[in-house]
């Protein structure tokens, strides 16, 4: 299922430049063939008629593509009252949308109109892929929007899942915008699947263990970092999204600012990195990150241990069971 899911059901914005989609969007004839085959297509949403809530999507050869209000989206069974909110329809304007072509007819002027359904594309994606996801599955996702409590992610054909802020990285951040940008492509791990069909994601397990991140640094180096919190007993500095160290309190240290630090010591048995704050710079943007797990090799996680072997404090995630990842900054 993982291979099928990755090649056929991508987040909106990922399908548009594929060879199959470009071929299908060449002409009216190719659109008609896509309609016969039930192919999921993707193009830009051009406008919304706010009286009818009908969307217009880009089509070739002067053809007009419309998505009626009833076909604007799919809500999985058990979530709310099953209806798509108007704001979810309006906010598609200017963005790529995926859909199936249901029929092609002529309007009052004899011009061709393709009647399309985003709901049909999402329903197929749900039935064939998303509803089959299990905790631990590693999947592609795309950030749709950011809120203080987390990042909403498209996990296929515009179906959205939540990645809560505490599961973005081990290093604590004040807002998902500290780590992600809207529209960014990421990988995620399915954290939990609720009985009502809601799916929650995690991300920190892909960013490496304490040992994997600590191996990138050595005592005696001066390196760059980002100040994440200022406490009475010290300043926590992020060296990597899954690795932070503690420096003594210093005047001028502000959360979210870039800095340079000297690494005094790296202590695996205590899972600690001791730092000296050298200089504080300007406010930092989103911090770069790298993935340590290749989903082509490891498509699903069952257990992930962050803490080093021999460390008394065990920090891990167990998928399919009650999960717990203790704070490493406490």
Question: Secondary-structure blueprint of this entry?
Answer:
Elements: H1 2-8, H2 19-24, H3 28-37, E1 41-49, E2 54-57, E3 64-67, H4 86-90, E4 96-106, E5 112-117, H5 118-128, E6 138-147, E7 150-154, E8 160-164, E9 185-193, E10 199-202, H6 210-214, E11 222-231, E12 234-240, E13 243-247, E14 257-267, E15 272-283, E16 303-305, E17 316-318
Parallel strand pairs: 3-5, 8-10, 13-15
Antiparallel strand pairs: 1-2, 1-4, 2-3, 4-5, 6-7, 6-9, 7-8, 9-10, 11-12, 11-14, 12-13, 14-15, 16-17
Description:
The chain is mainly beta. The protein folds into three domains: 12-128, Beta Barrel (OB fold (Dihydrolipoamide Acetyltransferase, E2P)); 134-207, Nucleic acid-binding proteins (OB fold (Dihydrolipoamide Acetyltransferase, E2P), Beta Barrel), CATH 2.40.50.140; 217-283, Beta Barrel (OB fold (Dihydrolipoamide Acetyltransferase, E2P)). Helix content is 13%, strand content 36%. The chain is built from six helices and 17 strands. The protein has helices at residues 2-8, 19-24, 28-37, 86-90, 118-128, 210-214; strands spanning 41-49, 54-57, 64-67, 96-106, 112-117, 138-147, 150-154, 160-164, 185-193, 199-202, 222-231, 234-240, 243-247, 257-267, 272-283, 303-305, 316-318. Strands 1-2-3-5-4 form a five-stranded mixed beta barrel. A five-stranded mixed beta barrel has the order 6-7-8-10-9. It has a five-stranded mixed barrel with strand order 11-12-13-15-14. The model is unreliable at 1-7 and 322-330 (pLDDT under 50).
């Amino acid at each position: 299922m993982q291979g099928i899911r990755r090649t056929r059901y991508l987040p909106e914005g990922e399908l548009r430049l594929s060879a199959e989609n470009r071929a299908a969007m060449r002409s009216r004839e190719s659109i008609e063939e896509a309609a016969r085959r039930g192919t999921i297509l993707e193009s830009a949403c051009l406008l919304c008629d706010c009286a009818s809530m009908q969307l217009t999507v880009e089509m070739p050869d002067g053809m007009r593509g419309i998505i009626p209000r009833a076909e604007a989206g799919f809500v999985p069974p058990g979530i709310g009252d099953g209806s798509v909110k108007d704001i979810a329809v309006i906010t598609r304007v200017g963005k790529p949308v995926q859909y199936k072509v249901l029929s092609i007819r002529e309007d009052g002027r004899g011009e061709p109109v393709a009647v399309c359904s985003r709901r049909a594309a999402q329903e197929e994606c749900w039935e064939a892929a998303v509803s089959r996801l299990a905790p631990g599955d590693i999947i592609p996702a795309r950030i749709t929007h950011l809120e203080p409590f987390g990042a909403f992610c498209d996990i296929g054909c515009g179906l959205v899942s939540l990645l809560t802020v505490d599961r973005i990285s081990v290093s604590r951040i004040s807002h998902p915008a500290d780590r992600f940008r809207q529209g960014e492509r990421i990988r995620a791990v399915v954290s939990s699947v609720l009985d009502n069909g809601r799916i929650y994601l995690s991300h920190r397990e892909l960013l490496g263990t304490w040992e994997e991140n600590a191996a990138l640094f050595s005592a005696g180096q001066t390196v760059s970092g980002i100040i994440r919190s200022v406490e009475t007993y010290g300043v926590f500095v992020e060296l990597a999204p899954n690795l932070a160290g503690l420096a003594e309190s210093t005047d001028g240290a502000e959360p979210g600012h870039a800095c340079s630090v000297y690494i005094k010591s790296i202590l695996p048995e205590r899972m600690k990195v001791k730092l000296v704050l050298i200089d504080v710079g300007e406010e930092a943007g989103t911090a770069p990150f790298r993935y340590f797990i290749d989903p082509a090799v490891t498509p699903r996680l069952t257990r992930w241990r962050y803490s080093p072997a021999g460390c008394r404090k065990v920090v891990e995630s167990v998928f399919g069971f009650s999960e717990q990842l203790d704070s490493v900054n406490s």
